[in-house]
Design a protein that fits this description.
Elements: E1 3-4, H1 17-26, H2 32-52, E2 57-60, H3 68-75, H4 90-99, E3 113-115, E4 122-124, E5 127-128, H5 139-150, E6 154-160, H6 162-168, E7 170-171, H7 182-198, E8 203-207, H8 217-230, E9 236-240, H9 250-255, E10 260-264, H10 265-268, H11 272-278, E11 284-290, H12 300-314, E12 318-322, H13 341-344, H14 350-364, H15 370-385, H16 392-399, H17 412-423, H18 440-450, H19 456-477, H20 494-497, E13 501-504, E14 511-514, E15 517-519, E16 523-529, H21 536-544, E17 551-555, H22 557-562, H23 572-592, E18 597-601, H24 616-631, E19 639-643, H25 653-659, E20 663-667, H26 677-681, E21 687-691, H27 703-714, H28 735-761
Parallel strand pairs: 1-12, 2-6, 5-7, 6-8, 8-9, 9-10, 10-11, 11-12, 17-18, 18-19, 19-20, 20-21
Antiparallel strand pairs: 3-4, 13-16, 14-15
Helix pairs in contact: 1-2, 7-8, 12-14, 16-23, 18-19, 19-28, 23-24, 24-25, 27-28
């Protein structure tokens, strides 16, 4: 029978135990041993699940207290110099690298954080010097191997491949060819593999997702060089690729001296048929047949029909797994109580995906699984035939769209004077991205209202009190354009998913975004429509409290798509247009309510790019059009903002400019303004707010730090088109940090204005 295995499991715990343990450790409420105990418990649960699902080897080293890329940097001894300046141990050094601060050690600027390929998971980019030394520290990995074996498990360690790790890295000071470090890096990998062999490890999963990209020739050669060198290792390597097909890298992958190759069958199609023709007699073919990125039940009958001849041909040389790590899906549907029975029957979380793999293995081994297959077939038929999925009026509205629906009427150059006259803002206007601290009282109030313990009138009164407090605090800080603070919102996507038809929201569908930050992506199961206004009354109330402009705050259509579990029975661009039309109605109603500036956030537009550049333009065409459909129903004097964070923009600047937002806010604090280069090389025509306050760190930026960053920005973008703002929303921070940070931000803006006036006078 085929071998069933896992590429990786969720590590947050079924009830987000890791999140709470991390935050307790960081704020001093518990000690290190308490955190490590929670981590051990989650690992043991994950290993037990794998064994119960018929997997002969459990995966180790897929668990991380923060991020697996950061763990590999620590494994290789790649620690930037600024974190080597005191006596904090490696445990807290990792947290300082991730978030700028830990219970011990001096606060420092955190490492750059960005998206893991085309997912909403964030990794910490390694920082490399031209003369980088690698000093192997395998203590974490070896300890987890011992821990798993002590629990009675055979193990399969997982490593990020050397070329992928190097591809993800950044040059710390001045550009150089990172590939010059590959020989030294390979020496460390060979040392590590020798150590693992000495521990009795026979298989190592080595992840090289860069193979699904269109790689430059030098990097393709690096893959070949790396695996020729690693062939000297005494352990067998399962070269693992995911997030797409190999395309023009397929021949390269087939030529490598590895013991096995894992392909993403879900997103990569039938490339494996070519592999079958060239697979050596001693090689394993691993197929990712269960979707590791989405939560719909698999069509097991169809998979069995496809896999049966492969199983007969390869026997134990056929391995079956999910398409990628299950890090990207919730832990267990058994803990979920928010869905009605019909919708629930359509879904599979991480634990259920292990069950699906087990069922496939049992069926291919000739065991009787007829009842389980019949249950699967009933669920699929229910979903395909459900009336709740299809709304003809929504589809007709999409068909009536034209290019005119994506036009503002006047170009930015003619809109800008109208907006300045209406808003009356100073040079270097200050604002925030939208959300403010979600205090315990706010969360408690929302929970009480959700459970029916608080009448709606009392809920509205309490939320209005929070909004009034938020407006007063911003005025006291001296901000120019205010926000209402989003006290009523649980999440920037989930909040809207709760109010749109065609969406369903979970109670326990948590997925890790980074560190202790978890999100609950809503589920798009059918055609999307907006039955009622979603934000208008909250924005109207906030604007009534102040003479300063208050931004309306919405999440854009591409981000609503990307950060949801999306239906797989309709092209993504069609679902995105449905969302855009729902948001268009909201934007128009906000304008009618007197809201002069409306922010439509699109942090996921870069994330949504196909991994292969040759497929970019069709995606960008429909993504930009969807944003414009949402934004372009208003008059020229209404200012449209958008926000993007933690992404590289240089190669899609033409598309960002085509969105034609009046103001774009971006992250620049962690990258030290490097991201702003994209907006100067392209000569971005509209207004920009480069984020100067790193909200993912508890550190409070000083006035001087903000001024220095903005001076750098003014060297690249004219001052009259610059805004001063944080780099993201503030919901995860506390008021004790936010208040002083925003006061410093406003003070920095005043200093910059004085400098500008002085320069004019001179």
């Amino acid at each position: 029978m085929p071998v069933i295995h896992s590429l990786g499991l969720p590590r947050i715990g079924a009830q987000r135990e890791l999140k709470f343990a991390l935050e307790d450790y960081w704020n001093g409420a518990s000690g290190r041993e308490s955190l490590l105990s929670v981590a051990r418990h989650i690992r043991q649960q994950n290993w037990a699940r794998q064994r119960a699902a018929g997997q002969p080897r459990v995966t180790v080293n897929d668990f991380s207290l923060y991020d697996q890329v950061l763990d590999h940097s620590l494994l290789l001894g790649v620690i930037p110099q600024r974190f080597r300046d005191d006596s904090s141990d490696i445990f807290d050094t990792g947290f300082r690298m991730a978030r700028g601060r830990a219970p011990s050690g001096t606060p420092r600027r955190a490492c750059e954080m960005t998206k893991w390929f085309d997912t909403n998971y964030h990794y910490l980019a390694p920082e490399l010097e031209a003369e980088q030394a690698f000093v192997l520290d395998p203590s974490k990995l070896l300890a987890e191997i011992t821990e798993a074996r002590d629990a009675g498990h055979a193990v399969k360690p997982v490593l990020i491949g050397p070329v992928t790790w190097l591809w993800l890295a950044r040059c710390a000071a001045g550009e150089f060819d990172r590939l010059q470090l590959l020989p030294a890096l390979l020496d460390s990998y060979l040392q590590l593999l020798e150590l693992l062999a000495g521990q009795g490890v026979d298989w190592v999963q080595i992840d090289e997702p860069v193979l699904v990209l269109e790689l430059p020739r030098a990097w393709r050669a690096a893959i070949e060089d790396a695996y020729r060198a690693l062939a000297a290792s005494p352990v067998r390597l399962l070269l693992t690729t995911y997030f797409g097909g190999l395309g023009d890298n397929l021949d390269l992958a087939l030529s490598l001296p590895v013991a096995g190759l894992h392909l993403d069958r879900v997103r990569g199609g039938e490339e494996y048929r070519r592999v079958l023709a060239e697979l050596r007699d001693d090689q394993v073919l691993s197929l990712g047949v269960i979707d590791g990125r989405n939560i719909w039940r698999a069509d097991l009958a169809a998979l069995l029909e496809e896999l049966q001849p492969l199983s007969q041909r390869l026997g134990e040389r056929l391995w079956l797994s999910s398409s990628c790590s299950l890090l990207h899906v919730p832990v267990d549907l058994e803990a979920e109580d928010a869905f009605d029975p019909e919708l629930r029957s359509w879904l599979a979380y991480g634990a259920q995906k292990l069950d699906e793999l087990h069922l496939l293995g049992e069926a291919l081994a000739g065991r009787d699984v007829a009842d389980a297959l019949a249950d699967n077939a009933r669920a699929l038929a229910s979903r395909r035939g459900s009336e709740r999925v299809h709304r003809e009026e929504v589809r007709q509205r999409c068909r009536r769209l034209s290019l005119v629906d994506g036009e503002r009427g006047l170009p930015y150059g003619e809109r800008a004077p109208l907006q300045r006259s209406r808003l009356n803002l100073p040079l270097y206007p200050t604002t925030t991205i939208g959300s403010f601290p979600q205090t315990a009282d706010i969360r408690r109030t929302r929970a009480q209202f959700r459970r029916g313990e608080l009448p709606e009138a009392d809920y509205v009164e309490r939320m209005q009190t929070e909004i009034a407090d938020c407006i007063a605090r911003q005025e006291a800080c001296g901000l120019d354009m205010l926000v209402h603070g989003e006290a009523e919102r649980n999440d920037m996507v989930e909040y809207f998913g709760e109010q749109l038809q065609g969406y369903a929201t979970s109670r326990n569908g948590w997925v890790q975004s980074y560190g202790s930050r978890c999100v609950k992506p809503p589920v798009i199961y059918g055609d999307v429509a907006r039955p009622d206004a979603m934000t208008v009354e909250w924005s109207r109330y906030a604007q009534s409290l102040t003479s300063r402009p208050v931004k309306g705050m919405l999440t854009g259509p591409v981000t609503m798509l990307q950060w949801s579990f999306v239906r797989d029975d309709l092209p993504r661009e069609q679902t995105c247009l449905q969302i855009a039309l729902a948001l268009r109605d909201e934007v128009r109603e906000l304008e009618s309510a007197g809201i002069a500036a409306i922010q439509i956030d699109e942090p996921a537009i870069r994330e949504g790019l196909p991994l292969r550049r040759s497929a970019w333009e069709p995606y960008l065409d429909w993504a930009v059009y969807a944003f414009r459909v949402a934004a372009c129903g208003v008059g020229p004097a209404t200012q449209i903002h958008t926000h993007m964070c933690y992404s590289q923009f240089n190669d899609i600047m033409h598309a960002i400019a085509a969105m034609d937002a009046d103001v774009i806010t971006i992250e620049t604090s962690r990258s030290n303004m490097q991201l702003l280069e994209a907006f100067t090389d392209f000569e971005y025509p509209n207004e920009i707010g480069p984020g100067v306050y790193d909200i993912h760190s508890p550190n409070v930026p000083t006035v001087e730090q903000i001024v220095v960053l903005m001076r750098r920005a003014a060297e690249r973008v004219p001052a009259e088109r610059l805004w001063v703002n944080p780099d993201c929303g503030l919901k995860t921070r506390g008021w004790e940090e936010v208040g002083p940070s925003l006061e410093n931000l406003a003070a920095a803006a005043r200093q910059l204005r004085s400098e500008a006036l002085e320069a004019v006078a001179n």
